[in-house]
């Protein structure tokens, strides 16, 4: 038996804005950041749980404060008790009646709960000696259903329906695990498409993406229509007719504007339009989906919880569902969202990039393939080649695929020294003692 | 010309849980709290802007940190510049690209923006020597429309439609101002209905409410059906057949459960069912509204922004729209929501209670009556008789009405000494040096 003896929170920021990595129509100068959490026990095995909220700079201190506000739920608690019933642990956190007022189940406090839950899953997987995707994929359908809070989604997905989906997938688990290990999981890349890049850089990176085996790239749009058309033409010329090109407006438009703008981009054979408008606008997304058909609408990186995803599915507001490892309340809520997507037969193509999002979300897609939807060939995980060097178990992406992580844990642990170097505002990168270029390859 | 020279933030908490004031099915033991903000300039006139985020205890420190994260938008800025174009000031805050990631436009960071915006409106009204409702009601339709961000609502309300609504109301402004000053604005009371109160206390308070001139009371429900039926019977017996009784489930139910539960309460002639389920569930509210008709559905105190209200109206998900002064991004976003409600012809009955919510929200309803909807006799503002004694300009509620505040400002300024006494965790109420009973009447 072991006790949680320390919960360390850190404000870690990478000065990505200095090179316009990650620039888009709504986020011109992000500094990719993590409100980071380390859970330490007295077990003596040296294993820790790590998790984070991903932000893009300012406000990362507030997210860190939100995680700190949750530490009474961890400190002094029996670790085995917390980890043995992750459904109960998750429900305890989302149902704190006072903290709930700050959402409920949305925004900073909800993301902080996600960081805590993910850190506990990381610890649980390390203790099991398994990568998180495999740990989840070996749980029984009953154990998986118990992870979910059905209160606000049972009108769309009952516990019995969830059980049926999971039980139907049990016989194929072993075979799909072998397939996953042999084939990898498809990826697409956003690396060429940031709005701050020149056409020349875009063209070069798009060609490299094809050479690297990616079947789809993504371009940021929504800043200026003329530029978008020119950039799309350059990208299509670079990749040829058989590579998918998705576009991402990062919430730039209203409903009518989205439909009109997309009419101008449609000739370039668009794989999907991502975040055309506010992530809160379910009915707006549904109207846009009707207006831009047959181009699929994709969203999710800012969709706050399972209740919103439920309605997006009920309203046929999205055709590509983009889970994010660090937006909702962690693994538990993402299991609910994967089950909803399976129920509605909608494909899941996770949002990633940022800091550690690729490392974390791959586990969810691989679990989904093995134990929920059973699908992967119509899906792909976003890949952006930034900041992986800071993680203990960085992703392996090659030949256009994510290759299944085999190391124990959930993937979110940063290397020793990263927190010190990039800690805000006193780490050397921010206090001016080390040039960012020296540490950001 | 003056400059913002100080922005003071405070974590203020009232130990209301010790008496079960404010208890309901989801919030058994709230400590009503304010993440409080004071904006000080060097104008020499002694006028300050005050605003707050209302919370119910834990996490108030995180809300305070969120306000603190916004102080760079105020400190050192020209005050006249900030106040002269409140539309631009509001848009500057909600469009900070890095902070926006933390919502967008929801949760703690959004509420913190609301506190800042409301503090600036408080200062602007004090400088004008007018109560906020009057300041707003004397602005031109063009000035009012410029306060609104239409990006995500223009599919339901265009700037031209908003202008038309406001222009139609101009001719009647003077007459309605006189009517308001002569008649007051209708109130209803939740004081009898907290879940933690005994039937005896409920009956006594319900009778007192009627004697005090209220035409409607509200009871918390959703904890236990048998208890709800018994308490409703007691309340109906106490108030007689001609007083409205609304019920409030505080998000306790799923869709099917809400409809079923309400079938048992319907015989008591229910004025509205409030917050039957998650405030995020637009389609769920619409289904419940169809299922419990003709009982109206009310919601809003947790509805995060204008985009969600827009859809609630588009989907006919609510028949009573409950704005809250401190949930959305302040006066500006509430002007947008009032215009949406007017466009859809839905009545607005604000949420209040808590700490300072009554003091703040009355200005919005009175402005709405004078300059937007022109209606008040089908509407009422919630009244709870808690904690008003801590404010410089407490509400005047008697004869079942709110009486228009005449003092300059927006109502949210606390009395000197309150922050010190109730400051968390070092104020004497929390550090144990003063018994709460000695300071909470």
UniProtKB/TrEMBL annotation, chains A, B:
Cofactor: Mg(2+)
Catalytic activity: L-fuconate = 2-dehydro-3-deoxy-L-fuconate + H2O
Superkingdom, natural source: Bacteria
Signal peptide span: none
CDD domains, A to Z: rTSbeta_L-fuconate_dehydratase
Biological process per Gene Ontology, one example term: amino acid catabolic process
Domain Mandelate racemase/muconate lactonizing enzyme C-terminal, chain residue ranges per copy: 199-295
SMART domains reported for this sequence: MR_MLE (SM00922)
EC number(s) per entry: 4.2.1.68
Keyword set, alphabetical order: Lyase, Magnesium, Metal-binding
Catalytic EC class: lyase
Recorded GO MF terms: L-fuconate dehydratase activity; magnesium ion binding
Record-given protein name: L-fuconate dehydratase
């Amino acid at each position: 038996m072991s006790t949680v003896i320390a919960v360390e929170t850190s404000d870690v920021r990478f000065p990505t804005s200095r090179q316009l990595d990650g620039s888009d129509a709504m986020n011109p100068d992000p500094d990719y950041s993590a409100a980071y959490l380390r859970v330490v026990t007295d077990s003596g095995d040296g294993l820790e749980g790590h998790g984070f909220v991903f932000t893009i700079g300012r406000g990362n201190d507030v997210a860190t404060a939100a995680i700190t506000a949750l530490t009474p739920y961890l400190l002094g608690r029996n670790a085995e008790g917390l980890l043995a019933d992750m459904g109960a642990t998750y429900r305890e956190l989302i149902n704190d009646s006072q903290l709930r007022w700050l959402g409920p189940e949305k925004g900073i406090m909800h993301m902080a709960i996600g960081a805590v839950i993910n850190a506990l899953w990381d610890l649980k997987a390390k203790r099991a000696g398994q990568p998180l995707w495999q740990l989840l994929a070996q749980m029984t359908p009953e154990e998986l259903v118990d992870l979910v809070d059905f209160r606000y989604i049972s009108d769309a997905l009952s516990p019995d329906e969830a059980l049926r989906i999971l039980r139907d997938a049990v016989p194929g688990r072993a075979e799909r695990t072998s397939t996953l290990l042999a084939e990898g999981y498809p990826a697409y890349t956003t690396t060429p498409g940031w709005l701050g890049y020149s056409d020349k850089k875009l063209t070069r990176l798009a060609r490299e993406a094809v050479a690297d085996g990616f079947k789809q790239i993504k371009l940021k749009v929504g800043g200026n229509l003329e530029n978008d058309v020119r950039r799309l033409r350059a990208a299509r010329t670079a990749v040829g007719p058989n590579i998918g090109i998705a576009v991402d407006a990062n919430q730039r438009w209203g409903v009518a504007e989205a439909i009109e703008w997309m009419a101008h981009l449609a000739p370039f054979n668009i794989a999907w339009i991502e975040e055309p408008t506010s992530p809160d606008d379910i009915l707006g997304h549904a109207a846009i989906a009707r207006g831009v058909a047959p181009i699929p609408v994709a969203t999710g990186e800012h969709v706050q919880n399972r209740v919103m995803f439920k309605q997006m599915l009920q309203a046929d507001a999205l055709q590509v569902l983009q889970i994010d490892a660090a937006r909702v309340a962690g693994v538990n809520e993402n299991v609910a969202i994967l089950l909803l997507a399976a129920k509605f037969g909608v494909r899941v193509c996770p949002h990633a990039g940022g800091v550690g999002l690729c490392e974390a979300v791959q586990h969810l897609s691989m679990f989904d393939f093995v134990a929920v939807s059973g699908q992967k060939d119509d899906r792909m995980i976003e890949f952006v080649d930034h900041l992986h060097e800071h993680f203990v178990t960085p992703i392996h992406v090659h030949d256009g695929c994510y290759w299944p992580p085999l190391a124990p844990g959930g993937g979110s642990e940063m290397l020793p020294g990263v927190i010190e170097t990039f800690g805000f505002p006193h780490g050397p990168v921010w206090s001016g003692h080390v040039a960012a270029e020296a540490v950001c390859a």
